[in-house]
Amino acid sequence: MSASKFSCFDSYRKWVIANPETLSQIETTGRFLSYLIAGRIKTSPVFSELIYSASNIIIFCNDQILLSVTQQQYIGTETKTILEKCRVLFTILEYIQVFLEITASKIWGSHGKWTAITIMQSIKFVWRIFIIMTQGNGLTTAHSIPPLSRKQLKPNKLSDWKSVSEERNKIFTFSLKSGRIIRQVNGSPQIHKRNWKLPVSHSFESNEEPKTKLEGFPLFGEVLYTLKPLCHLVAMSRFGTKSWIPTSLAFVTDILSISLLKSCPLSSKDAKEIQRRQLTLLMYLLRSPIYDRFSRNVILQILTLLRKIPLIGVLPHQILQYMLFWQNIYCYTWD
């Protein structure tokens, strides 16, 4: 049975590597399907988020398959460190958090919803603080493992990496019946040169820019950004979801965090992350109480005008239908 499962996975892996463009089209269709069924059936919020979360996890798994080709990991996934395994788990949590929130709300009501949100945000806070304190460089991103840029993976480049990896695997490794890959003794360096460390992954992005060193005020700014969700949740539990105090506290925390982080030289990757955080400040227009008192009327007027335009008149109705549901999801509007 295990050999059969490994054979099926190996066939799927080869198909993913050989057809990255077709794979991207299928993945896009899966995501579009979740938007298409939103509001169509009675249980559509849970069902559409289940499809969306599942499609994101499948895309993530496919990314790992493509990376395994370009990074030449000769001993297999068993060599992953605990930190790398935790990154995978927290990335999956980030992909399914909206589904968990909606499911908790459906089963246990408002109390279950906020309990689930608090637990998820607490776990993510502990994880991000651990990363900041242990690594001390680079800004935390929306996902523990960012999505792979498929544009950099040309089919001929994938085939080149695959051929090199397979050739070296034939020379230095052999496979057990279970599918586990073992390195041969003659594939090891001379005994006086061995360091007993895991093999180094040689990525196709070998000239990656060093990450920003976080210390002093920039470090405090990153900790503030990480602490913001919990501060906002505590303020909401104290003053209510419609109060201006939680929103004002979160906004001031965001502004202060960005200002402190911009006080030091940033790498190009971290500079893009700062730009992303600045753009997310626009999300405050969709957050209560700003949305309830100001933004909603303006958005409704704009969508009403757009509905009168031929050809695109149906689209504003779909956007409005989804936005009314989307605005009440904490993990969409605040995370």
Furnish the topology, listing elements before pairings:
Blueprint: H1 2-18, H2 20-36, H3 44-70, H4 82-135, H5 155-172, E1 173-175, E2 181-183, H6 217-239, H7 244-261, H8 268-279, H9 290-307, H10 314-326, H11 330-333
Antiparallel strand pairs: 1-2
Helix pairs in contact: 2-3, 3-4, 4-6, 6-7, 9-10
Q: Nutshell version of this structure?
A:
The chain is an all-alpha fold. 66% of the residues lie in helices and 2% in strands.
What do you see in this structure?
This protein has 335 residues and is mostly helical. Helix content is 66%, strand content 2%. The protein has a domain at 1-79 and 149-181. The chain has helices at residues 2-18, 20-36, 44-70, 82-135, 155-172, 217-239, 244-261, 268-279, 290-307, 314-326, 330-333; strands spanning 173-175, 181-183. Strands 1-2 form a two-stranded antiparallel sheet. A hairpin with a 5-residue loop joins strand 1 and strand 2. Helix 6 (217-239) packs antiparallel against helix 7. It is globular and about 65 Å long. The two termini are 42 Å apart. Its main location: membrane. Belongs to the peroxin-16 family. Keywords: Peroxisome, Peroxisome biogenesis. This is Peroxisomal membrane protein PEX16.
Question: What attributes characterize this protein structure?
Answer:
335 residues; two-stranded antiparallel ribbon; 11 helices; 2 strands
Strand order within the widest beta sheet: 1-2
What is the helix/strand order?
Answer: HHHHHEEHHHHHH
Q: Give the overall pLDDT as a whole number.
A: 78
Total strand count, please? 2
Count helical runs: 11
Tell me the major beta sheet.
2 strands, antiparallel
Query: How much β-strand is present in the residues?
Result: under 5%
Helix content: 55-70%
State the shape: globular
Q: Span from first to last CA?
A: 42 Å
Which residues form runs of ≥5 with pLDDT under 50? Answer: 72-79, 201-206
Q: How much is the radius of gyration in Å?
A: 23 Å
